Structures are given as structure tokens and as C-alpha cells.
Known about the structure:
By secondary structure, this protein is an alpha+beta fold. It has 11 helices and 10 strands. The protein folds into 2 domains: 25-69 and 168-481, Outer membrane efflux proteins (OEP); 81-149, no CATH class. It has a 4-stranded antiparallel sheet with strand order 2-7-9-10, with no helix packed on it. The chain has a 4-stranded antiparallel sheet with strand order 5-4-3-6. A two-stranded parallel ribbon has the order 1-8. The protein is elongated and about 150 Å long.
Amino acid sequence: MKRLTIILILSFTVHAYAQSQLSSTTVSHLNPDSCVALALRNQAAVKNAVLDLSAARETRRAALTKYFPSLSVMAGYFHAHHPLIDVTASENKDNINVSAAFDGRPISLDENEQRLQQALDNLGLDVDVAELVNWFIDRISVDAQLQMLDHGYFANTTLMQPVFAGGRIINGNKLAKLGVQAAELQLLMTRDEVEMNVYTLYWNIVSLHEKQKTLRQVQLMLDTLERDAAAAVVAGVTSRNDLLKVQIKQSELEVAGMQLADGLELATRALCQYMGVGYDSVRYTFDTLSLHDSDIPAPLPYVDLAAAVAHRNESRLLKIGCDAARLQKRMTIGETLPQVAVGATYGYNNLTHDQMQANGLVFATLNIPVTAWWETAHNLRKEEFMRQKAENTRRDLQEKLVLQTFQSWSAMNESYSLISVRRRAVNQASENFTEVKNYFDAGMNSMKDYLEAQTLLQQARNELVNQVIDYLLQRRQYSLLM
């Protein structure tokens, strides 16, 4: 009596602990729509597609800045190894020898005074060379020396406004706009792909759960059969071989159950990873699969294939590719056209060690790339070939998209028709099992026939489950192509 009391107390304690553990575990029910929502929010592929879209938008904003003036600021300092102007005088008896050097190179004042004056004028320096030399000679002393432009500093700012750049600014902005549209379509295509992957993973888990249910039903039947066979062996009604066949079948189902459990855990982990949620801290439940005709949605209607393909994101992306190829050709043509710009500059400099000088100017530039025409002619031919290639690719892929859409519609209807075939197979296998069981109970069938009938029924049920799930996936795939 005491032993029975202890066993009851231990059983109650273990049961209470197990219940507390189950109650502390968070239970979350998942359906296809909730799984899709989680995957679209957490999937890396969707996040990267959103980043690509953001990058394309920034590229378009950067292209818009080409319409506006550009402002640049420059400052500098120089220190020459040889002064730009170096005049030296020395007394030789009654004569005075004057020597001059420009940028470290000796020059003759008589022959190069005009060239030196021109060089200073080009530098924008207000220096009269003849007056400077006369002043220097009038006030000269022995071993006198004059050095200029050995070091200095300057700063200026330039404002540049493009007027015409061969159409490359306009076409560049159009290309950037197409880039944004292409990124948006890529995001939509990525979302469709993620949605289809989620549905495949989800219904694979549901399929494994349904197969576990069928397996448990078979195990219960075999447990009953094993008890009856053991009693029959003890009573001497049947041989031990029948009991052994049942036990072998039980072992096979045990192995199958372990494989199903491992496959179910792996499939659930894969779905959780794809959705970006944890697995170990939550116990997940899923929808059950109804095999009744009324619960299975009807096939989607047939649509005009050409119209369906024209509205697909893939077709719109192919059209953008062709438009981009044409704009790229215009960009190449723009390289051969004149480029006009206007601007203004203003700056300060101190090159003569006297005082800061300021000056400003406005200007206009005309750039005609004459020698680039030859090279651009070859580039134009290349761009034309690329445009034709894009058109060929678009035409070929659109034809394939039509075939893909029709194939998806056919696969959906074929899969739906096979559900009726699989259901008839289940009914036939069930009737056969009932008949064999009745004959077995009457001693007119062997244990082998009974186990084979049970195996056929199990296979028929599993095939019906697979067929229903295949139809649901085919229907979803076709809906994404419509």
C-alpha cells in the first residue's frame, strides 16, 4: 500500500512538472499569411532589394545635381628653386655689368626685354620691365641684385554652369529614373519569390504533420493486432511467425516515425530561419490540411496569356532594359556634340610681396571633340549592337513567359484533377483493407495479406496529402503569374 502511494505521488509530481514546463513555453500558431508577413519583414533578400532601391534613388538625386552650377575653391602656395626674375649688377672699373636670368635661365636684356614683358603680362602682373630696369640702373650700386617671383600664394573660386553637354545630362537623368523603376520591379519580384518559398516550406511542414497522423493511426492498429497475435500464439491458435511479422512491421513504423520527426524539426527550423524568428524559445503550431472537396479551393480561371505576360514584372523589366539601351546610345552620341558652358571666377594673389591683389572675370567655353568622332563612331556601332541584343532578349523571354504562364495553368488544372484520382485510390485501398481485415478475422486471410493491405492504405493516404499540397502550391504559383 505504501509503495502504491509513493508511486502515485511521484507520478503526480512528474505530471505537474511537465505541465508547468509546457505552460511556460510560448505557443505560436502560424498560417501561410503570417509566415509571408514575417519573411517579407526579415528576409535578407527583401532587405537587400530595398537597399538597392534606396541606392537607385540616390543615384537619381545625384544625376539631378548636374543641372545646377558647380562651385569650386582653389588655393595654393609656391616657392621656386630659381626666382622667376633675377637681375644682378656689378662694377668693373668705369663700367657696370648687368646680367639677368628668367626662371633660372640667363637672358640678354637688350634682346629679351620684350619677351620678358610679354611673359609678365601673361602672368597678369602689372610690371613695366623697361621702367624697372631703368630704375634699377639709376639707383644701382656695386653688387646690387633684384629678385622677383621666388615665392607667393593665391586663392580663387570658380562658378561653372553647363549650358549644353550634348544631351548627356538629360539622358543621364532619364537613365537614373529607369534605374529606380528597375529597382522597384526587382523588389516586387523578390517579394513574389520570397512568398512562394514561404508557401513551399509551410505546406511541406503541414504534409509531414499529416503523415505523422496517418502513421499514428497505423501504429494503433498494429498495437491492437500485436496484442491479438500474442494472445493467439499463447492459445496455440496461430504460429509465432504471424506475431513476428507484426513486430517487424512495428519496428519499420518506429523508424519511419523517427525520420518524420527529424524531417519535421528540420523543416520547421528552415521555415523559422527564412522568416527570421527564433525556434528554440517558441513552440509552433500549424494549420491542418482538410482533404474534403468543399475545403479545397477551385482552380483559378484561364486568362489571356499575352495580356498576363504584358503586366508581369519581368516583362516591364525587359522593356526598361531596351529603353536603357537606347538612352545609352544617345549618351554615346552626346560625346561627339559640342559642349557649351559659362562661368565666373574671382581670386586673390600675392606674387610680388607687395600686397594682396584681387581680380575677377566671366567666361564662356566651347568644346568641340573633333578627334573623338572616329572613336565614337565605333562606340555607336557597339551600342547599336547592344540595343539589338536587348530587343532580341526581350522578344525571346516574352515568348518564354507566355509558355511559362500556360505551363503553370496546365500544371494547376492537372494537379487538381489528380486529387480525384488519389481520393478514389484511398477509397479503394480502404475498402480493400476492410475486406481483407474481415477475412483475416474469419481466418481466411494470412497475416501477410493483412499487413500488405494496411501498407497500401497508408501509401494511398500519403499520396493524397502530397497531391493536395502540390495543387495548393501550383495554384499559388499561377496566381503570382496572372
